[in-house]
Each structure stands twice: as structure tokens, then as C-alpha cells.
Amino acid sequence: MRTRDMCTRIVSTLPPREAGPDFTLDFSRRGELRILTLVGELDIATRDRVRDACTSDGSTDLLVEMADITFMDCAGYGALVSARRSLQHGGHTLTLHNTSGQPADLLAMLTLLEART
User: Fold this and answer.
1) Which H, E and C letters describe the chain, residue by residue?
2) Which of 25, 73, 76, 101 lies 20 to 30 angstroms, CA to CA, from 3?
3) What is the model's pTM?
């Protein structure tokens, strides 16, 4: 998929650090594994919240449940990469789980681009 073939969307007028009303994040645990469930759009408006949540307790591995993410842009992807690097520095992992729809398409596109360099 080429970037110019991607669908356009209306950009939110919310300030960059404020999440929209349809975005939530929630933590749970399965043994030593932390699970962060995200719902809504992972974009410039929510990236800081997500990155901070991912790294708030960097003493365990993290699984990010993405089944209910409806949209993700490069700012959201950057937040996940930053969080992964931070966790890896401490010897832990960040795993994305149940990506689908547009977020899965973005991740596939970025993987293809990464493989070509």
C-alpha cells in the first residue's frame, strides 16, 4: 500500500495532550504479565498517555491489547516504539496483540518498508 493510497480522515481539533472522549486505556495482570487494553484512536492526541502508561511500571513484560483500536497514525506507532525501547532497556518486552483493521494495515505497511531498507 502506498502512502498516497491511504484514506484521509478529519483531524481532531483537540489540543495534542488531550484524549478524545472515545479513547480509554485499562490495565490488568495475568501473573507477572501486565496487560494494557486500548480502545479508540491511537494518534497524536493519545500518544503521550499510551507511552506513559506503557512505561509506568517498567519492571515487567507488557502485552498491549489492540483489538478495539479503530485508528492508529505514525504518532501512535512512535509511542509504541518508544515504549518498547524503554522496556527493552530494562530487559522486558512489549507485545502487540490482536491488531486488526487500519492499525494492522499500518503495521504491515511499516514492516514492508522496514524490510526494504
Assistant:
1) CCHHHCCCCCCCCCCCCCCCCCCEEEEEEECCEEEEEEEEEECCCCHHHHHHHHHCCCCCCEEEEEEEEEEECHHHHHHHHHHHHHHHHCCCCEEEECCCHHHHHHHHHHHHHHHHC
2) 25
3) 0.76
